[in-house]
């Protein structure tokens, strides 16, 4: 099942070596089908790493997936080569007149800031408003989920005394929902955040359903009843070493940070972390593409509204 990306994008080589089916644009042009058009607003500082993580799971699709990478104009990443951004990324102004089957808004390391103090907040608000009529289904991740719940429903985040950091058990609240179809009764997902949102605040909004939550990590997957807005508070897309690298980064900065929970075998950082969430990530991203988008998005993409 192919994902359609430029051959020069680093993810093409990375995923090909993992025996994941990626298709270059030249080959895709010979196939007489309409690809799903998915935009990714990448707010993560390590953009290439985030690309690889997301594209790995978007590759598990029934048809071609055509990716458009977006960056903010009001803030330029300091951790990604400018040559990479100029070659592979678009600004919102370049796509505002287009329609997309799906949009992913990633997390960002700004969670302890007030939303209004984030450099690109006004631009992000414009994109989130635009998504309501120009994207069939939008998937928000971690801070992106909190920001969207605040913008669309005025649900505020709350600062935690201790960071939610590690790999946690989750359970399904509604077994027959398309997005969580196929997940085990208990499944795992990574979290890395200093803030949270209240279950009670979400339950006050009639348009929202909580599909999954964790006793330790709180609410996990929230969805609108029409499946066009999805909010995931953790990081199913994370690689094996992502939490390890975040932990070592903070240690090297002299920050107070606890070892990630349920991550290193025997809590020994010399032991390689065990991936316990890959199957769940494949299911959730695959269900989003298939049930929330492919089965329902208009064939004539200009009819999205």
SSE layout and pairing:
Elements: E1 3-4, H1 10-17, E2 22-23, H2 25-28, E3 36-41, H3 47-58, E4 65-71, H4 82-88, E5 89-91, E6 100-105, H5 121-134, E7 135-141, H6 143-153, E8 157-172, E9 186-197, H7 199-203, E10 208-214, E11 218-224, E12 229-232, H8 242-252, H9 278-294
Parallel strand pairs: 1-2, 3-4, 3-6, 4-5, 6-7, 7-12
Antiparallel strand pairs: 8-9, 8-10, 10-11, 11-12
Report on this structure.
This is Homoserine O-acetyltransferase. It catalyses: L-homoserine + acetyl-CoA = O-acetyl-L-homoserine + CoA. This protein has helices spanning 10-17, 25-28, 47-58, 82-88, 121-134, 143-153, 199-203, 242-252, 278-294; strands at 3-4, 22-23, 36-41, 65-71, 89-91, 100-105, 135-141, 157-172, 186-197, 208-214, 218-224, 229-232. The protein is of the alpha/beta class and 305 residues long. The protein has one domain (3-159, 178-186, 196-239, 279-303): Class I glutamine amidotransferase (GATase) domain (Rossmann fold, 3-Layer(aba) Sandwich). The strands form two sheets. It has a ten-stranded mixed β-sheet with strand order 5-4-3-6-7-12-11-10-8-9, sandwiched between helices. A two-stranded parallel sheet has the order 1-2. Helix 1 (10-17) packs across helix 3 (47-58).
- The CATH topology name reads Rossmann fold
Question: How many strands, what sense, and barrel or not for the largest sheet?
Answer: 10 strands, mixed
Structural class: alpha/beta
Helix amount: 25-40%
| Quaternary structure | single chain
State the shape: globular
User: Please, how many helices?
Assistant: 9
Distance between the termini: 28 Å
**Strand-residue proportion:** 25-35%
Q: What is the level 1 CATH name?
A: Alpha Beta
The low-confidence runs, each spanning 5 or more residues with pLDDT under 50, are none
Helix and strand sequence? EHEHEHEHEEHEHEEHEEEHH
CATH superfamily: Class I glutamine amidotransferase (GATase) domain
The CATH architecture name reads: 3-Layer(aba) Sandwich
Number of strands: 12
Q: Report the radius of gyration as a whole number of Å.
A: 18 Å
């Amino acid at each position: 099942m192919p994902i359609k990306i430029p051959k020069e994008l680093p993810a093409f080589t990375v995923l090909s070596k993992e025996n994941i089916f990626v298709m270059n644009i030249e080959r895709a042009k010979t196939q007489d089908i309409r690809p799903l058009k998915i935009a990714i607003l990448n707010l993560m500082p390590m953009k290439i790493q985030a690309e690889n993580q997301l594209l790995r799971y978007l590759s598990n699709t029934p048809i071609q997936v055509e990716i458009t990478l977006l960056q903010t104009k009001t803030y330029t990443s300091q951790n990604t080569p400018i040559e990479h951004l100029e070659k592979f990324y678009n600004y919102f102004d370049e796509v505002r007149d287009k329609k997309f089957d799906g949009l992913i808004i990633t997390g960002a390391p700004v969670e302890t800031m007030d939303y209004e103090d984030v450099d690109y907040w006004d631009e992000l608000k414009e994109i989130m408003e635009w998504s309501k009529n120009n994207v069939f289904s939008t998937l928000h991740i971690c801070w992106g989920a909190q920001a969207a719940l605040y913008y669309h429903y005025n649900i505020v985040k709350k600062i935690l005394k201790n960071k939610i950091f590690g790999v946690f058990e989750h359970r399904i609240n509604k077994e027959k929902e398309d997005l969580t179809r196929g997940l085990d009764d208990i499944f795992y997902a990574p979290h890395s955040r200093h803030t949270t949102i209240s279950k009670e605040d979400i339950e006050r909004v009639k348009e929202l359903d909580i599909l999954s939550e964790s006793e330790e990590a709180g609410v996990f997957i929230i969805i609108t009843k029409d499946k066009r807005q999805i909010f995931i508070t953790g990081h199913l897309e994370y690689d094996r070493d992502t939490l390890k690298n975040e932990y070592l980064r903070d240690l090297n900065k002299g920050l107070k940070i606890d070892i990630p929970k349920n991550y290193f075998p025997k809590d020994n950082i010399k032991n390689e972390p065990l991936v316990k969430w890959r199957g769940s990530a494949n299911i959730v991203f695959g269900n989003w593409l298939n049930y929330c988008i492919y089965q329902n998005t208009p064939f004539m993409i200009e009819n999205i509204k």
